[in-house]
Amino acid sequence: MLAYIIRRFLLAVITVWAITVLTFVIIQLPPGDFVSIYINSLQSSGSQVSFGQAEAMRAQYGLDQPMTIQYARWMGMMLQGDFGMALAWNKPVKEIIGDRLVLTMVVSISAIMLTWMIALPVGIYSAVRQYSFGDYAFTFIGFLGIAIPNFMLALILMYVGYKYFNMSIGGLFSPEFENAPWSLAKAGDLGKHLILPAVILGLAGTAQLIRIMRANLLDELRKPYVVTARAKGLAETRVILKYPVRAALNPFASTVGYYFPYVVSGSIIVSLVLGLPTVGPLLLTALVAQDMFLAGTIVLMLGILTVFGTFVSDLILMWIEPRMRMEG
Amino acid sequence: MDNGHAERQQPILSVRNLKTYFFQDEGLVRAVDGANFDLYRGKTLGIVGESGCGKSVTARSVLRIVERSGRIIEGEILLRREDADGQIDLLDLTKLDAESRLMRSIRGKDIGLVFQEPMTSFSAHYTIGNQIAEAVGMHLKLSKEQARQRAIDMLRSVGIPKPERRVDEYPFQLSGGLRQRAMIAMALSCDPSILIADEPTTALDVTTQAQILALLEGLQRERGMAIMLITHNLGVVAEMCDQVVVMYLGRVVEKGPVDQIFHSAKHPYTQALLLSIPSIESEPRVKLPTISGSIPHPYRRPNGCPFHPRCSQAMPGLCDAQVPTLLPVGPDQEASCFLYHQPVEPA
User: Fold this and answer.
1) Contact B330, B254 (CB under 8 A)
2) Spatial separation of the C-alpha atoms in residues B248 and B245, rounded to whole Å
3) Over the stretch A23-43, which tens digit does the pLDDT of each residue have?
4) What SS3 class is residue A218?
5) How many Cβ atoms sit within 10 Å of the Cβ of residue B218?
């Protein structure tokens, strides 16, 4: 079992390294670099930049070096915890990302928790009462959830929230807390603002997970061990929760891994619409500006979080699946 | 104790005219259509028939764990059991709510179930000990530690070596034979007076089959429980059973003591079944007789006697028009066939 964990961990490290290389290459792929884009934007606003100035800027950021050296320098910096400068902001990347990354995680984790909290009981209900009115109703709502684009739902809910519930909409904080230091009141304010984004970001995933849970549980309910459990005289609720539900839980564990990047990358447009201070919109601007340090750091962070999420879901799977524990 | 003796002669379980139908979108399936039999303490009743003849549904009806689309629509299942004050009473299981506390206290406690798939009848997510101790703790009101000890004792009594270690193992760590032993241990863990064994040896290899059957016989001698043995294997019936019930399409076509069934079967279906067993005296390289045709589709039951389309002695105009009933054809032996009885109401 320990060997399995170590093997998984080593694989995770190698994967992260591969992600750094890929990230670097992909960001370098488009023609030009940050300096040329920067000069373009300066020129379009009327100011002139000399060739010498441009070269000096390139040298300052190390953009005149060959790719391999640039990569090595970047990696060296990263390993020391220095993520470089966000070129367009002229501020350290760390400063710009810091809070946003935390808020992104808060939003994503709330969306995932909400997804689980809804999908688990509804999936169980839909399977146990297959073809009942409730099952059909949930299926209908679920397909709606999959079919409606996120940003559309965001717009509708924002409108409804503003018009009928007088909710302050957009962003994660009320104006008075925006730049306030962290306090209980601010956390409470965040909690209130979290509901809408969590619902919007979680809905499509919830609908999918309900379908998966329902299908898995329907399979498990037909298996002989369910009859054995009934024949023991257990109450029906206990029979279902202890045996088939336990066996159908695997997709929940594996979602931990892939759901996180799905929520983050799928949330860019929603975040823009809702005005969320998360990394999604930041990544978009950084990519447009070819701000390689900022974009690189964000993509790398997402990559690492995905790998970490997968590692965690492997551990959870091992915990709920004795066969893996024994044979891994 | 004359009274006690008389009590012992009473059947512990009587199934009377049991009908379990499945109401499905495609149509009505009469899985069990009038089953009658009795179970006695310390005796083994064999229920035989081809696949799909209603054997397993009969077993599940007794435990009241028939799937949702199936319902018991008629008949009685009378269980003789001691109630809390040591009083013997007769309980009709068909009258109970399947989910009621009383019915659940009967499942696993008064009636144990062992069935076909030793691979999948345990959950792979919990240890053997956990799954056995669960029932024990609930029915016998034992503490966790006592329940675990009981599970170990049960595993030992069914001949599983090193039960202290096996109790913490998962089902997939056991061989098929050991798993079926563990299943028997679980079914017997609350000392039930009835054990229903639904094809307990079908999925095992022949050597293991013999061991499991010997184990069941030994346990029955020790504990005196009644066994309802469901099988399509007539060899197993000959070895294990005292009484035999032959079922075809949900109906009992013949029943009687095992010797009479094997030596003077009356119903053409029973006779055909017996002919299809290979015998040590039969000539080599000669095809075994088979029963012509196949079981009718469950949605399209034949009229009259359900067996008449495949019966070599069917009498046109009678067998395809009227349904025979189970009537005596010898000492303790009954068959449901017009060869031995005139129709009750002439056509």
Assistant:
1) no
2) 10
3) 888 877 777 777 777 777 777
4) helix
5) 13
Domains of chain A with bracketed CATH: 97-288 (1.10.3720.10)
Contact B48, B234 (CB under 8 A): yes
Strand pairing of B333-335 and B44-48? Answer: unpaired
For an interface test with A, give the residue of B102, B109, B125, B173 to mutate (most A CBs within 10 A). Answer: B125
Structure tokens that stand for B90 in this block: 């007769």
Are A235 and B99 within 8 A, CB to CB?
Answer: yes
Q: Which CATH superfamily is B2-248 part of?
A: P-loop containing nucleotide triphosphate hydrolases (3.40.50.300)
Q: Do B112 and A321 touch (CB under 8 A)?
A: no
Contact (CB<8Å) A234/B138:
yes
d(CA A227, CA A239): 9
Q: Is B124 on the interface with A (CB under 8 A)?
A: yes
Domain boundary assignment for chain B: 2-248
Asked if B106 has any chain A CB less than 8 Å from its own CB, the reply is: yes
Q: How many CB atoms lie within 10 A of CB A43?
A: 11
Q: Which residue of A has its CA nearest to B127?
A: A322
Q: Which helix (H) or strand (E) holds A12?
A: helix A2-28
Cβ atoms within 10 Å, residue A74: 23
Q: B89 is written with which tokens?
A: 């009473």
**Each residue of A215-267: pLDDT tens digit?**
999 999 999 999 999 999 999 999 999 999 998 887 777 766 667 667 666 67
Residue A42: CB atoms within 10 Å: 14
